[in-house]
Specification:
- Helix content is about 35%, strand content about 30%.
- It is built from six helices and twelve strands.
- Strand 1, helix 1 and strand 2 form a beta-alpha-beta unit.
- The chain is elongated, with a radius of gyration of 21 Å.
C-alpha cells in the first residue's frame, strides 16, 4: 500500500488551481480540486481529507474563514492546512496561524516551491492518515469501567486498530459514553499499553467501538510507530 494523500485543493483562479492539481498529482497525491470555497467547506463536512491546500483571497469565504470552518468540522479538525497567498506581512502570518493554518506559501509560487511545500507537509499528512486508517488486528484486550460505584471488567479481542481507537469484541460491552480503561500488548511489544478510552458505540453482538483519550507522548509514540511500521510493511 502506497500512501497517496487525499487532498482538498481550492482556488478560484482556475489556471493556478489546475497547476496545483497537476503538481500534487505528480508528487503522488490524490487531489480533489474545486474553484469554490463554499463547495470546499461542504466537502470538508462530508469527506475525510489528509490535507488541505487553499488560497486566501476568494469570494464567498476567504481562506481564513475556510480554515476556521475546517477546524470545527467533525473529521478534518486536525488535518494539515497549507495557505497560499500574495500577502507576506508578519500580521498575515499571524492571522493564518490563529485560524489554524499549518503551512504558508506566498504566491505567485513556482512548481519547485509547491513541491517543497508538499514534501514539508507530507509527514503531517501521513500522521493524519494513520489517525483514521483501520488496521485489521486480532489481539487480546482487557477492559475495565465503572457503573456508579460498581467496577465492571471484560476480556476480548480487537478487530481493528488505529492510532485513535479500536473496534473490539468484548464478553460484555460498556454503554456508549462510558470511560473505559484498556490494557493490551501490541504485537512483538512485551510492554503492555494501558490507556484510557471512551466507548462510542456498542452492538448486540458485543462489538464495541472505543476512542482513545488523554494519550501521553509515550503512548501516542508507540501507537504511531506500530501503525507506521505496519503501513510500510503492507506497502512493501
Amino acid at each position: 500500500m502506497i500512501f497517496r494523500p487525499k487532498l482538498l485543493v481550492v482556488d478560484d483562479e482556475l489556471p493556478f488551481l489546475e497547476l496545483l492539481g497537476e503538481v500534487l498529482k505528480g508528487r503522488g497525491a490524490t487531489p480533489r480540486c474545486v474553484p469554490s470555497s463554499r463547495q470546499a467547506a461542504e466537502l470538508a463536512d462530508r469527506e475525510k481529507f489528509d490535507g488541505v491546500f487553499s488560497d486566501w483571497k476568494m469570494p464567498e469565504m476567504d481562506g481564513l474563514e475556510l480554515a476556521r470552518h475546517i477546524r470545527w468540522s467533525k473529521s478534518n479538525s486536525r488535518c494539515p492546512i497549507a495557505m497560499l497567498t500574495g500577502a507576506a506581512e508578519t500580521e498575515a502570518l499571524r492571522q493564518c496561524f490563529r485560524a489554524g493554518v499549518t503551512f504558508f506559501l506566498q504566491k505567485p509560487a513556482t512548481v519547485a516551491q509547491i513541491e517543497r511545500l508538499f514534501n514539508a507537509a507530507r509527514d503531517a499528512m501521513f500522521q493524519e492518515h494513520l489517525r483514521y486508517w483501520r488496521l485489521p488486528l486480532q489481539m487480546r484486550v482487557s477492559a475495565a469501567w465503572a457503573i456508579q460505584d460498581y467496577q465492571q471488567s471484560s476480556k476480548g479481542q480487537s478487530i481493528n486498530l488505529s492510532t485513535t481507537g479500536m473496534l473490539a469484541k468484548l464478553e460484555t460491552s460498556p454503554t456508549p459514553g462510558t470511560s473505559v480503561d484498556l490494557r493490551f500488548n501490541l504485537p512483538q511489544d512485551p510492554v503492555p499499553l494501558e490507556l484510557q478510552s471512551y466507548a462510542v458505540r456498542a452492538t448486540p453482538d458485543q462489538m464495541t467501538g472505543l476512542r482513545f483519550v488523554n494519550l501521553d507522548r509515550e503512548q501516542w509514540g508507540r501507537l504511531l510507530h506500530f501503525a507506521q511500521h505496519r503501513f510500510e510493511s503492507v506497502s512493501g
